[in-house]
Inverse folding.
């Protein structure tokens, strides 16, 4: 059941962002804990992309612009989380 739920979340995110979500490190099979900014940032990227598309489809320029802003803010937040993860990993 967990695999199905994981796939249901992963595939749409992959389609929207082009990024793969992995909770396993590339160097080993141990699970890692992602910084909350990464998960929240990804959530905002997806939410913004959906708003952007909805705005384009409906011709609502304000919604499209709001979606672009939220998507880009999510990208920044995701990068902040990546930097925090890298800093944490260097400590260990």
């Amino acid at each position: 059941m967990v695999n199905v739920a994981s796939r249901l979340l992963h595939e749409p995110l992959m389609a929207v962002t082009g990024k793969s979500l992995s909770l396993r490190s590339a160097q080993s099979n141990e699970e890692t804990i992602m910084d909350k900014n990464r998960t929240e940032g990804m959530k905002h990227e997806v939410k913004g992309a959906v708003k952007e598309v909805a705005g384009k489809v409906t011709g609502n320029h304000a919604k499209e612009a709001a979606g672009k802003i939220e998507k880009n803010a999510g990208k920044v937040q995701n990068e902040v989380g990546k930097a925090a993860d890298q800093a944490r990993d260097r400590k260990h």
Observations:
- Helices lie at 2-17, 36-58, 61-91.
- The two ends are 33 Å apart (CA to CA).
- Confidence is low (pLDDT under 50) at residues 1-6.
- The longest helix spans residues 61-91.
